[in-house]
Amino acid sequence: KILILDFGSQYTQLIARRVREIGVYCELHAFDMSEEDIKAFQPNAIILSGGPESVTAGDTPRVPQVVFEMGLPVLGVCYGMQAMAAQMGGQVSTSDHREFGYAEVKVEGDSKLLGGLSDRHDNEADLLDVWMSHGDKVTAMPEGFSLMASTPSCPIAGMADEKRRFYGVQFHPEVTHTLKGKEILDRFVRTIAGCDGLWTSDNIIDDLVDKVRAQVGSAKVLLALSGGVDSSVVAALLHKAIGEQLTCVFVDNGLLRKNEGDMVMSMFAENMGVKVIRANAEDLFLTRLQGVSDPEQKRKIIGNTFIEVFDTEAGKLKDVNFLAQGTIYPDVIESAASKTGKAHVIKSHHNVGGLPEDMKFELVEPLRELFKDEVRKLGLALGLPYDMVYRHPFPGPGLGVRILGEVKKEYADILREADAIFIEELHRADWYHKTSQSFAVFLPVKSVGVVGDGRRYEWVISLRAVETVDFMTARWAHLPYELIERVSNRIINEIEHVSRVVYDVSSKPPATIEWE
Ligand code: XMP
Q1: What is the residue range of 435's domain?
Q2: How large is the ipTM?
Q3: Whether this model's pTM surpasses 0.90
Q4: β-pair partners for 25
Q5: How many domains does the chain have?
Q6: Is 172 among the catalytic positions?
Q7: Is residue 516 assigned to a domain?
């Protein structure tokens, strides 16, 4: 396995994802991980990430000395290379030429990492397209190192000490713009560090099944199943691991998408034989939401009511000692990365409620070590349908934040129909998976429409579709006009009480993805 020390680059998680894609397990830890912990982890190799700081400044992050003393292969990326150079006796200077973006590096010498690589036609030139993002650069290599790559503005773009198996690259192999990036990482973790590609969905499932069984024994486990990717994969996995010992509670809050509750029940309860209790709590949620129009207030009410309903259902079960949750790796590592203080912390500002602390359960979190793309692959390997595993995310408060202002059943019913038409047409036009999140929003304003000879004042539906990688920034999707037209016609013709459809052309920031 590989240890990745994080110096705060926004790309650090990408390094981990690439290494996992290659089939090798890795973990990400903050650069100040203790010597003890580093040794206890027993890595086969260590990767030092990039970072926003300058090694030429005084008290910036340093590589724990033990990293260079364990006899392991080390790969420094960007800041990681600079820190390695500075700490081993080389020189780093602040560059007057800032390189950012695409660059062309020339492969020098015949290192194990880059030797013979080329992404040019017929391999006629030893050039590589790479992604650079740095101000500082290494200006003198430490003793024992030789040149591995160069660019005109960055003569030492890569250095290698083959004897000690230390490598540094100024560019970012983890970014897809570096065309041969994955091959470079593959050479490092498999050829140089000698790791086997055993991290595959099937092996992960076997491993997790064993772990869950060891953790819970013959005890009973409870899971709040939402129908989202993470809790669905947990359900499928636990069902495989402990079968009847698992009970899921699915809370229908009346704010779900069209047919969602029935779909969850038929998939898990009927098809897979998972024990699922469906709590039909629509009336309770809608009563609590009556007269409330403040979005944060609505979120709170929905969150608290969820906990209450879940609690009541859980209370009816006997002898449950474990609570399963769909926590995934990014939820866990955020705290480690934020230790640098400088890290680009990607934190979703709203993870659903959380369960009350006085619940006397031990947690089962089988997906804790997995990235979202790994969770999805696991879902497929466990037999979940593609469309469910690759479904767009849906917020915990559901339609509650897509009906602006006060939530009413009448509005929710209209919105469900409109949303279903939009999603159906997106699928039909092969656009669903080209967007990251798409949905309809109910606007409680009356707008005029002429029907026959009469003027009718009816509600407005807005369509929202965005493209995003991390949901922190997003661009409105440039859907074809014909598609928007078809959706609009269908919504206005098929749904009573809707007179107008608009398309949201706001990007984030400043407009958020949801309307509330
Ligand atoms: P915004 O609207 O903040 O949304 O751009 C970013 C992502 O978060 C989702 N979202 C929520 N998820 N509870 C959730 O579980 C919420 O209250 C909530 N609000 C927004 C949103 O759907 C998008 O994917």
Answers
A1: 408-503
A2: 0.99
A3: no
A4: none
A5: 3
A6: yes
A7: no
